[in-house]
Cysteine synthase family protein (Algibacter agarivorans), 344 residues
Amino acid sequence: MKHRNKVFDNVLDLVGNTPLVRLNKITSKLKGNFYAKVESFNPGHSSKDRIALYIIEQAEKKGILTPGDTIIETTSGNTGFSIAMVSIIKGYDCVLAVSSKSSPDKIDMLKTMGAKVYVCPAHVSADDPRSYYEVAKRLHSEIKGSVYINQYFNQLNIDAHYKSTGPEIWEQTEGKVTHLVACSGTGGTISGTAKYLKEQNPDIKIIGVDAFGSVIKKYHETREFDEKEIYPYRIEGLGKNLIPTATDFDVIDEFVKVTDEDSAHTARLIAKSEGMFVGYTSGAVTQAILQLGEEGRFKKDDYVVVIFPDHGARYMSKVYSDKWMNEQGFFDSKNEAAAQNIQY
Ligand code: PMP
């Protein structure tokens, strides 16, 4: 890491330059070489530090934001935490409209970081006045001098990753990367990173990970919004019930879908096999490479980079709680060993 052995003025200087770590055991049955970009090494413990800092600094440069102003956002938690962190250092008020699907730990963390949090129902349509999109829009119109980050529809979300995550991966792999596999929520991470990597080498395959219950994969294949694809699912931060303009569908070659249950078990397996305590979507992206690998999609010399978006501590009451796993019916006979907490 570039950071080591330095002294910093504040935590914002630690955003980005996250390590790329080889996956050794969990992918041992697959052909290919697999590396995880571990975004929990950011000071706010997720990839969202990159976009929060970048978008806020762009607004400052344009003179839109001055200290004392309010920053508003809709967020599943991570972006909110990052915006709250940046707001503390730079002297802004932070107001967040959050989905009720977010874990209680995440909501408590946001409050701890000084944010004002509005919890909005998860299973209403995006245009419902109770949805977190509509609540954020209303607050933006009500609070004078406020800025709405709007990560799902903000091109700067893509630019942040184009300027940081992409170049870092290219440099860290010394240009050897052959595949990028990443979760798509707003789509900013995969789109910006992919755009940069494809400019260096158009042959790099870009694979997005989507949830069952999300419209993203079908939209990529048909360019049509199919409401029938939408139903409730549990993974936070992955997939969507609308089409974000922060997703550049043209730079993504294909999408793979993963289930809540498989992703949960794979997240737990990453901890037990690699010693990495990462979030639910890190389980999802690893589940995707396991599925692709089993289909024989990787070759011996392939250099596959996956993005682990956040830290496991944010999911203690969910995927890392045996009680929660049981309640979801994820500890069935197939996974009896896990139910008894026997080693994988
Ligand atoms: N994983 C988690 C935990 C997230 O919070 C997000 C962001 N919603 C993602 C993955 C997906 O990142 P992006 O929004 O850049 O597509």
Remarks:
- The mean pLDDT is 93.
- The longest strand covers residues 93-99.
